Amino acid sequence: MSDRLLFHSCYHKCLTFYFYNVYKTFAESHSMKLQYLHNDSQIMPDTDLLLDPHSLIKERQLLDNVSSYRGSHVIRDPRDLLISAYFYHLKTDEEWCAKPNPVNVSLPADVSYQQHLLDLNQEDGLLYELNHVAGAAIHRMASWDYGDAEILELRYEHILGDERATFKHLFEWYGFDEDMADQAASIADSLALKNVAAHSAMQQHARSGSRIGQWRDFFTPAIKRTFKHRYGEALIKLGYCDSLNW
Prior knowledge:
This protein is 43% helix and 10% strand. By secondary structure, the chain is of the alpha/beta class. Strands 2-3-1-4-5 form a 5-stranded parallel sheet. 34% of the residues are buried.
């Protein structure tokens, strides 16, 4: 490969852990350096593949000093992202969520994000999630620069069930030859959500609610009203509806 930086940008509950596992397996088989971009980290000079889990690479202007790059970026229906994030946060053992954390400034010092959600009924919990972690992700999704010709735009809804073809195309886009793209596609197929039962490490990151359109089962009139007010225009901009009449 050349010195071109290859990266993938995504959001919470947009197949982040899945992409990380595909990239990790592929990178290890080719002695490539994979970097997981934390909120406060910089791009390491020896990075071959980079996973940007919160789509901060442009917001933090981290590409300004990169001579050449080729990226990808995935989005998901923000309504489904909200539902998936809420149920994930009810059960995850991630420390920032499961234990009291000063980052959660809206909560008492001895109450975790997770405990607060558990103390609320489902409607209030979803509204809280919308105003915090999921809402922040939706805001970044709506603010992303979609005009960069060096970044391949992907949709969660098009990836599910078509993982092999998606990753074949993606790795060819990155510039890998056909054999290496085929290998990436095979790795992606083996780690796909349809096979999640075989991969215990992925089980907490996927649930039956990963299905498309799950929001319809959980949106109450109050949630729909609030969502339309805050992110109705974002849904239109992102192409998930053509008006506010949904």
